[in-house]
Amino acid sequence: MVRMKAGEVDRDNSVDKVEQILQGAMQEFLQHGYAGTSMDRVAVAAGVSKATVYSHFQDKEGLFKVLIEQLASKKNNSIFGTESIEEEPAVIVRQVVTKALEQMVNDKEHSAFMRVLIGESGRFPELAKICVRAIIKPVMETLTHYLAAPELNIPDPEATARILIGALVHFHITQDVMHGKDIVPMESDRLIDALTHLITKCAD
User: Domain 1-57: which topology?
Assistant: First the structure.
């Protein structure tokens, strides 16, 4: 039998506690919004003491920020982390657009969390800024870097990245977040085809 040292056990327990707290916090933020969630509620939802929550997170804003950063890292890696630069530009663009849209549409927790964030942004503008820094800016920078590849021949990669992201976000908001599928219906494949064509025609 392999025996773990006391320090290793403590570190493992600490990681588990943080994950419990984050899961409890997500549950509370989705149910009660940012303003309606307290560290007491988070502690109860996570099944830990209030002191344990504060031992890992200084305040509610810090906890919310970590949730955003965790979500951002997961999304960024799932969209951009496995693409091969050896593929044809048209293939890569389609893969990136498809993965990004799938992440938005299929992750119901992400959609719900973004509803909370957008709804609270008027009263808590700093939360919106955290989202822009942690989610929007890194995705924009990564996509801009890719679109700057010489073989794509795109005159303004940063502006093109904004157009691409804007189209995907608009589709997700109108179709899913605001429940408009029956009002302005469109198959996701049509959007993917159109975006792929618009971006890769520069490389022809």
Answer: Arc Repressor Mutant, subunit A (1.10.10)
